[in-house]
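Before drawing any conclusions, I looked closely at one protein, both as residues and as discrete backbone shape codes, quoted below without any editing:
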Amino acid sequence: MDKLQQAFELFDTYNKQDPTTLVWDNITYPSEYFYALALYNWVLKLEPEASEAVLLASRSQHIGRWTITRKTYPDGKAGYLNWRSDLAKFHAITSGYMMLQAGYDEDFIEEVKRIILKQKIKLDPEVQLIENALCLVFLEFQFEDFIRKHDDEKLIHIIKKTWKKMSQPGQDAALKLNYSAKASALLGQALA
């Protein structure tokens, strides 16, 4: 087994421990394992020749996300931002440790961590590729759940923020997704 496959095996084994599950196409998955596979698949759809660093970042972007819960941080925007920042650092450190176990050197691991931490997002095409893929995972697999939980005004705001995060290839792919009538209407309003 090569280093890439060893790292994937370590990431996947860890993410399969997620106690929360979701059902997709009548199959139950540990949530973060499912989303890691979905992110990886979107990266390959957007860029079939994606670098090894991007592939590793995609499979470990949210590794172990369930271990640091939102409810352990104060309500409000500042609490949310601190939670997200701490999570990103946790993901980078955790994936780095696993990549080291798989045989990657420190310099390469730092490159993957930089992508996970989304450094220079609008300047680095690899970081932007991950951001596009993350937004597409949200729109394809999570947006319908948000529709059930939030009012239209909040949802339109979420779509606008998501759209700004993506570059043209991500936006083009987002327009080709199959949405419910409600999601299509909200998307139309947000992009009008």
